[in-house]
C-alpha cells in the first residue's frame, strides 16, 4: 500500500461515519507499521463498539512487535470506562515484560486506584511470564 493511501485511511479514522472508520481500521490492519499501530492505539476509545473491537484485535495481534504502544495505552488506564480500561490492560499484559518500564513510570501518579490498577497489571505480567505462560490474559 502506498503512503498516500495510508494517509487517507489514517484521516478516515476521524470520520463521523463508524462504517468508514471500521473499514479504515480493517484495511490499515493489513499494513501495520509503527506509525499505523500508534495511530490505531490512539483510537482505542472510539465511540463505536465495532470500531473499538477491530482496533482491539489488531493491537492485540501486533502489540508484541510494537511495545512502544504501551505508552499510548497507559492513558486509557486513567479513564472511567471500565471496558476501555480493561482492553488497554489486556493488550499491555499481552505485550509482556517490555511494557514494565512504561508501567513503572506511570506508577508515579497521584491517583491511588490507578496506581493499584497499574501494580496489578505488573503483577499479572510477572506471574504470566515467570510461569512461561504467554497466553491471552
List the SSEs and their pairings.
Layout: H1 3-12, H2 18-28, H3 34-41, H4 49-62, H5 69-73, H6 82-95, H7 100-106, H8 112-130
Helix pairs in contact: 1-2, 2-4, 6-8, 7-8
Subunit organisation of the chains: single chain
Intertermini distance = 33 Å
Percent strand equals under 5%
* SSE-based structural type: mainly alpha
User: Level of helix content?
Assistant: 55-70%
Shape: globular
* Mean pLDDT across all amino acids: 92
Cα-atom radius of gyration:
15 Å
Describe the overall structure:
With 137 residues, the chain is mostly helical. The protein is 64% helix and 0% strand. It contains eight helices and no strands. The chain has helices at residues 3-12, 18-28, 34-41, 49-62, 69-73, 82-95, 100-106, 112-130. Helix 2 (18-28) packs parallel to helix 4 (49-62). The longest helix is centred in the last third of the chain and has 19 residues, at 112-130. The chain is globular and about 40 Å long. 28% of the residues are buried. The mean pLDDT is 92.
Amino acid at each position: 500500500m502506498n503512503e498516500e493511501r495510508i494517509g487517507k485511511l489514517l484521516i478516515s479514522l476521524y470520520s463521523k461515519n463508524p462504517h468508514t472508520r471500521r473499514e479504515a481500521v480493517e484495511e490499515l490492519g493489513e499494513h501495520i507499521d509503527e506509525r499505523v499501530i500508534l495511530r490505531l492505539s490512539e483510537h482505542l476509545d472510539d465511540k463505536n463498539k465495532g470500531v473499538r473491537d477491530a482496533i482491539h484485535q489488531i493491537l492485540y495481534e501486533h502489540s508484541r512487535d510494537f511495545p512502544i504502544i504501551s505508552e499510548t495505552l497507559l492513558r486509557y488506564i486513567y479513564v472511567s470506562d471500565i471496558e476501555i480500561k480493561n482492553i488497554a490492560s489486556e493488550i499491555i499484559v499481552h505485550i509482556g515484560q517490555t511494557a514494565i518500564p512504561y508501567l513503572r513510570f506511570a506508577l508515579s501518579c497521584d491517583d491511588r486506584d490507578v496506581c493499584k490498577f497499574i501494580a496489578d497489571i505488573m503483577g499479572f505480567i510477572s506471574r504470566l511470564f515467570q510461569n512461561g505462560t504467554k497466553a491471552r490474559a
